[in-house]
Every structure is written in C-alpha cells, then in structure tokens.
C-alpha cells in the first residue's frame, strides 16, 4: 500500500516536472488532464453500472459557458472561469439528470447521447450566439488578477490543471468509498434492496450524475482555456465515445485509471498522428482490443497484476 | 391487547382475476410474532408487498402506528420503521457482508455517515455485533456471492435489522436453511427480535415453525383471512388441517 502511494507520488512528480524539461508537453498534458477529468465523470457513473455515451455535452456546455463568461467579464479570471464552467455544467447535469436517471443501461446511455447531439445541433445552428461551426474564441484569462504572456500562462494553466486533477481525484476517491458512493455501486447489483433500506436509487444516481457532469465541466473549461477556442466538436458524439474508450482503457471504475487512460490515449494519439497519420484510429482500436481481451480491468488492473507478481510473498499488492 | 401497530382494513387486490386480497382486515400488535400461513398463491406475500409499498391495493387502507401508509413508496415506509426480509435474499452481491451491513447502517443514520469512508464507519462494531447475534460474524469479510443460500438468508434478515425497525416483515425466514439449522436460526432470530424489541410478521409454510415460534397465526386463504388465533387454536382447526396443512 505504502509502496503504491510512493509510486503514485513519483509519477505525479514526474508529470509535474515534465514541462520543465519538455516544454512542448504542456498542451498535451493539459488536454490529457482535461479529458481525464471528463473520464472521471464517466467512471463515477460506471460505479452504478451506467455508461453515458453523451458526456461531451457537459464538456462542451462548460466550455461555452466559460467562453460567454469570459466575454461578459472582459477576459475573466482563470479560477472564476473554472468555477463558472463547473457550475454551468452542474446545473445542466441536474436538469438532464432529473430525466435520464429514470432509465438504466442502454436507455440511459442512448438518452445521454441524444441530449449531447441535440446540444451539438443547437451549437451549430444558433450561429449568432454560438459562432456556429467556427465556434467562439476564448481569450486568455488573467490569473489572480495578473495578465500573463502565452508561455507563463501555459505553465500556470498546466499546474492549475494538475492541482485541480489531484484535488478532484482525491475527492472522487473519498466519495466512491463513502456510504453514498457504496450505495451508488449497489444500484448495479440490487436497486430494489436499496429502496427497502430507505435509500432513493434515483436520488443517489442523480447526485452522482451532477458530480459527473461537473467533473466533465471542469475538464471542458480547462480544454477550452488551453485551446483558446470552443467549437461544437466539443459536444460531438465522437468525443463522448472517446471518453468511454479512455475509461475502459484506464480501467473502468478506477480514479487513477481515468487519468492513466487519458495520458496513454493522448500520448498514443499524438505519436500515431505523426507516425501513422492515416491510420491512427485503427491502431487505437487495436490497442483497445488488446486491453479488452488481455487486461479487462484496463491499465490500472494491469498494473495491479504486474505489481502483484513482484510483491514479496505473503503480502498482497496494494 | 396492545394497540395495533399495523392495521389493514378492507384490502382488495387482484391479479388477472385472481383475488389475492378480498376484503382483508388484519392487525399486527406491538411485540407480536404473527405468522401468516395458507396455501400457495393465497395472497400471503401480497400482504407484505402492500404493507411495504411494493403494491398498491385496489381499495382499502393500511395504517402504521396511526399513519396511513397505503400506496406510499417502499423507501418512505422503510424510513418510518417497517423493514423487510425477502424469500430470496436481496443483497448487494459485489460487496462484502460487512459492507452490506454498513450500507444499511448508513441508510439508517443518513446525514451522519455522508462523507466518512464506509470502512471507517462508527457503526462497524454495532453491525459486527448484529452479525454475531445472527451467527454469521465469521463471514463478515466475505463477498456475498461466495456464501451459501442459508447464510445469505440470515444476512438478509440482519440487513433489515440494521435499520432498527419497529416491525420486521419476513417471507419464509428459514427457507433455504437446512432442516438441522432452522430451529437454531429461529431461536437466534427471536432472541435478536426480543433484544431489539421488534414486532415480527412472517409468512411461513413450515407448521413446526409456526407452532413453535408464532404467538398468533392468521390463515390466508383465497384472499381472505379464514381464521385467526393462537397456534394451538388455529392448527387444531379441522378445516385448516385439511386445506392448509394437508392432513
């Protein structure tokens, strides 16, 4: 257990230092963290056995909310935009959640997809407000009242993203291990019993859904601020599928898996796009096939298996 | 006689023309151990389903401690003090036994346990004690799917008791338990019920159990209460012996 924690700290430290030695990695890492947060939202819902195929809705909604807020506030403040983005997606999550938590499994997944595609169409068609397919430009916000140049801003954004991911990851870990988190997992196996314990299965799932939407929202805002541009592509179904893909790759159900999956996915995608521009999707598909066939618990499960093999006899791997 | 805790009046419900309750009046009193017996399909479990909000009667009312609970949700009714154990155990299969119990304790203590990790729950000792009383403490760390049906049954009852209910409704509490163990299980169960001052209603097919553990017996036949009284009175009735017991 302790060894695992040290290793985790080591990996986080390595990631924290990486942009200092490889400045090009800032953008890649911020985008990976942003997607990791959205995937964390998927992981929360997976605890209840529910898969959302439309979580890009919240990723995009928060990005647009942040873009509108930045316009209204004359550029805005980074932390304010993150909070506004999260709250915006949280409110939307509550509204959508009130409807979708009544459904389970494929209906739950497809309803989420439907909502995200409706939102995508709205973003495309309401050109005067959303900029249509051109999207909205999000100018660089200030940080604690200081307007930064591009390079220092990107470094700052990276460390804000890293700290946000660490704090939210820890909070989600706490939540999943708390009584409401365990009740959420119980939805998967026995919803009837949950009701007969006096716990509302729908209420439990709704809370998880709003949390999940807010996580995707923080991710969406980070991505939007990093890229400086928000387009309807943020809400497109491919993006939602990408989140589910990463969740499986990382290890469905694991907090760390969300970020590990996002880092590997973005890394593989980035290199494959350079080395095999025409077939990177095909190769990513092969990677997922291998994971599903040989490591069904994803990267985190694979890590547990490997560390278990090398753990001293008589001790369980953490 | 003490005041009625559950009071069902003129209950009517039918399924596809078959009357499961046809004007049923039945009262459960504080500290009662009421057994409901009757032929298969007579409507015994329907009574439990109505009392716990799973079914809404076509007409009639159910009151719990003076408050009407007819048609209320299982969640609402459970929170007011009626717990249920099932004929087929209803547990959280991916969780360990103690986790199941701690979810039950958290449901009971709602606000207090909102943020604390379940593994650090203050109710752990209390739940272990309850498992000890039910004789299943030794499997507390095991995942439920790994356990035999008899033990799951006991844990299902323990989970209902974790809520500290005023009334426990049980559907054949010893079905699935071996014939050697069933008396031991019921002895244990009644001791726990007495310890927690829980009123009990149980649907039962085993007349030996009824004779030994019920204080009152109601015979449910074709949607009606045919006869009600002490086990000695009811089981001595010639009609009951012929139609229900099969002598």
TrEMBL record, chain B:
GO molecular function list: ATP binding; ATP hydrolysis activity; L-isoleucine transmembrane transporter activity; L-phenylalanine transmembrane transporter activity; L-valine transmembrane transporter activity
Example of a GO biological process term: L-alanine transport
Alphabetized UniProt keyword annotations: ATP-binding, Hydrolase, Nucleotide-binding, Transport
Limits of the ABC transporter domain: 6-247
EC number: 3.6.3.-
Alphabetical list of Gene3D superfamilies matching this protein: P-loop containing nucleotide triphosphate hydrolases (3.40.50.300)
Alphabetized PROSITE patterns for the sequence: ABC_TRANSPORTER_2
Entry-linked SUPFAM superfamilies: P-loop containing nucleoside triphosphate hydrolases
GO cellular component, one term: plasma membrane
Protein name: Cobalt import ATP-binding protein CbiO
Organism for this UniProt entry: wastewater metagenome
Gene that this polypeptide is encoded by: cbiO_2
């Amino acid at each position: 257990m302790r060894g695992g924690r040290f290793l985790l700290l080591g990996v986080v430290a390595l990631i924290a230092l990486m942009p200092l030695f490889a400045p090009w990695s800032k953008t890649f890492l911020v985008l990976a963290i942003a997607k990791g947060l959205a995937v964390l939202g998927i992981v929360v819902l997976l605890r209840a056995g529910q898969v959302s195929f439309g979580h890009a809705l919240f990723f995009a909604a928060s990005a647009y909310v942040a873009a509108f807020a930045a316009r209204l506030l004359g550029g805005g403040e980074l932390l304010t935009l993150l909070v506004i983005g999260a709250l915006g997606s949280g409110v939307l999550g509550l509204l959508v959640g009130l409807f979708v938590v009544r459904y389970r499994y494929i209906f739950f997944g497809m309803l989420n997809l439907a909502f995200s595609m409706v939102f995508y169409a709205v973003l495309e068609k309401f050109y005067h407000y959303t900029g249509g397919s051109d999207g909205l430009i999000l100018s660089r916000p200030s940080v604690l009242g200081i307007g930064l140049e591009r390079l220092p801003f990107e470094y700052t954004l990276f460390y804000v993203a890293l700290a946000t991911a660490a704090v939210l990851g820890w909070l989600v870990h706490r939540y999943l291990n708390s009584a409401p988190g365990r009740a959420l997992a119980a939805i998967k196996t026995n919803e009837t019993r949950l009701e007969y314990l006096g716990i509302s299965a729908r209420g439990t799932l709704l809370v998880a859904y709003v949390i999940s939407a807010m996580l995707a929202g923080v991710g969406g805002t980070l991505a939007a601020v990093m890229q400086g541009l928000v387009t309807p592509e943020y809400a497109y179904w491919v993006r939602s599928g990408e989140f589910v893909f990463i969740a499986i790759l990382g290890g469905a159900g694991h907090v760390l898996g969300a970020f590990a999956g996002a880092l590997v996915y973005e890394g593989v995608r980035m290199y494959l796009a350079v080395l095999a521009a025409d077939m990177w999707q095909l190769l990513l598909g092969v990677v997922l096939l291998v994971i599903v066939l040989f490591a069904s618990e994803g990267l985190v499960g694979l890590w547990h298996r490997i560390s278990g093999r090398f753990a001293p006899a008589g001790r369980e791997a953490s | 006689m003490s005041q009625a805790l559950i009071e069902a009046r003129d209950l009517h419900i039918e399924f596809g023309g078959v009357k499961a309750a046809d004007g049923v009046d039945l009262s459960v009193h504080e500290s009662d151990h009421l057994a409901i017996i009757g032929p298969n399909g007579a409507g015994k479990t329907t009574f439990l389903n109505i009392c716990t909000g799973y079914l809404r009667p076509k007409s009639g009312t159910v009151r719990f401690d003076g408050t009407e609970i007819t048609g209320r949700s299982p969640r609402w009714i459970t929170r007011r003090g009626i717990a249920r154990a099932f004929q087929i155990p209803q547990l959280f299969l991916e969780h360990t036994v103690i986790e199941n119990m701690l979810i039950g304790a958290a449901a009971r203590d709602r606000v207090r346990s909102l943020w604390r990790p379940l593994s650090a729950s203050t109710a752990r000792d209390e739940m272990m004690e309850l498992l000890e009383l039910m004789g299943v403490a030794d499997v507390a760390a095991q995942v439920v799917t790994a356990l035999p049906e008899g033990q799951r049954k006991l844990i299902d009852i323990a989970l209902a008791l974790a809520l500290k209910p005023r009334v426990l409704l049980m559907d054949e509490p010893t079905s699935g338990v071996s014939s050697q163990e069933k008396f031991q299980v019921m002895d244990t169960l009644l001791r726990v019920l007495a310890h927690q001052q829980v009123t009990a209603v149980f649907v039962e097919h085993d007349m030996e159990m009824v004779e030994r553990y019920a204080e009152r017996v109601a015979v449910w036949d074709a949607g009606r209460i045919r006869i009600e009284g002490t086990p000695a009175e009811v089981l001595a009735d010639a009609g009951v012996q012929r139609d229900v017991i099969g002598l």
